[in-house]
Design goal:
The protein is globular. The longest helix has 17 residues, at 248-264. The protein has helices spanning 15-28, 89-97, 106-113, 115-124, 143-149, 176-184, 229-233, 248-264, 298-306, 310-323; strands spanning 2-9, 34-42, 45-50, 53-58, 63-66, 69-72, 75-78, 132-136, 154-158, 168-170, 189-194, 199-208, 211-214, 218-222, 238-241, 271-278, 281-288. Helix content is 29%, strand content 28%. The protein has 352 residues and is of the alpha+beta class. The N and C termini lie far apart (51 Å). The chain folds into three domains: 2-103, Rossmann fold; 110-128 and 198-341, ATP-grasp fold, B domain (D-amino Acid Aminotransferase, Chain A, domain 1), CATH 3.30.470; 132-194, Dna Ligase, domain 1 (2-Layer Sandwich). It has a seven-stranded mixed beta sheet with strand order 6-5-4-3-2-1-7, with helices on one face.
């Protein structure tokens, strides 16, 4: 039997959602093939719970000492949204222990978690992104300077984070200071990003059996002003339509862009790309390298429309992790130079 550590929780505002994702994976995993162990990670506390007892993970080798047995894990199923599972920290630790995992590697995870850096790389390769300005606690632009750079309305959000935690849609200059302070409570860096009126489309991608698979495109229609934390996780606050009610050409273009980005960014496992479709053009927003897997999450809806069960998805992700060597180097299939991946120095995310 293959021992699977399902890691969930983490140290961000997405802790509760991550635990729900991990619990869903644990419930749906094929127990004829895998023996799952749900590990709750929060700060220094890494715990496995069973029958009312808690067992700490031995961090020297990421194993469990249970009564009468010592469990070593064959693979880690990463269900942590946010730090340390989505920004590369956990991946680096697992790489040093030579334990395979289901998500992207250190470099890809670190790059994609940083929205500004990721947008810069994506824009460098000719994919449109909204105009944006990166702020940090050493470089706080004045409200007037920021207003001159980014037109209103705009979004103010943590640069490293997910689930729209700490994100505000700003419609007047007077709202900027409070929105910036809210975002800085979640992160050391804050992104000010222009608002683009359009349709929100998202596409899931994974690799299985040597093939890059794009899932049916989803359209998100929020019943709030934007797709914030409440709209994402409160039943009835958003419509997530799969397949998206768009033309075959638009759907195919979204899937093609997503497949190209998956390879360009050297993604592994299951990821989800988010866009605004406006004026017959796609604007890349971000990539989620550990997307939600709760019963109400978007990706499971895509999977059902694709014709797979949740259990099949989990099996495919684990099998791919077991056969894919983990490395911090670029993909061996990539024929360009390392310099081709690097954006020019300067502004962030221009419309190209």
């Amino acid at each position: 039997m293959i021992n699977i550590a399902i890691v969930a929780g983490g140290d961000s505002g997405e802790y509760a959602i991550s635990m729900l994702s991990g619990e869903q994976v644990e419930q749906q995993i094929d127990r004829k093939l895998f023996q799952p162990f749900l590990i709750d990670i929060r700060g220094d506390s890494w715990l496995y719970s069973k029958d009312g007892s808690e067992y700490p993970v031995d961090k020297n080798d990421f194993s469990l000492h249970l009564p009468g047995t010592h469990i070593r894990f064959d693979v880690v199923f990463n269900a942590i949204h946010g730090t340390p599972g989505e920004n590369g920290k956990l991946q680096g630790y697992l790489d040093m222990l030579a334990i395979p995992y289901t998500s992207s590697d250190v470099i890809t995870s670190a790059l994609t978690f940083n929205k500004a850096f990721c947008k810069s790389v994506v824009a460098h390769h000719g994919i449109r992104t909204p105009q944006s300005v990166l702020l940090n606690k050493r470089r706080r632009e004045t409200v007037s300077a920021l207003s001159d750079t980014i037109s209103l309305p705009c979004f103010i959000k943590p640069n490293n984070g997910g689930s729209s935690v700490g994100m505000t849609k700003v419609t007047s200059a007077g709202q900027l200071p409070a929105a910036i302070e809210l975002a800085f409570r979640e992160d050391e860096e804050v992104l000010a990003e222009e608002f683009i009126q359009g349709r929100e489309l998202t596409c899931g991608v994974l690799r299985t059996n040597g093939e890059t698979v794009t899932l049916p495109v989803c359209e998100i229609v929020s019943k709030k002003e934007f797709f914030d934390y409440e709209a994402k996780y409160t039943k009835g606050m958003a419509d997530e339509i799969v397949p998206a009610p768009v033309s075959p050409d638009v759907s195919n273009e979204c899937r093609q862009i997503s497949a190209n980005l998956y390879d360009l960014l050297n993604c592994k496992g299951l990821v989800r790309f988010d866009y605004i479709y406006s004026g017959e053009k796609f604007f890349f927003l971000e990539v989620n390298t550990v997307p939600g897997l709760t019963e109400a999450s978007i990706v499971p809806k895509m999977i059902r429309e694709h014709g797979w069960s949740y259990t099949e998805l989990v099996t495919k992700l684990i099998e791919e992790a077991l056969i894919t060597p983990k490395s911090t180097s670029a993909s061996p299939e990539y024929s360009g130079s390392q310099g081709d991946l690097l954006p020019p120095l300067g502004g962030w995310g221009s419309d190209q």
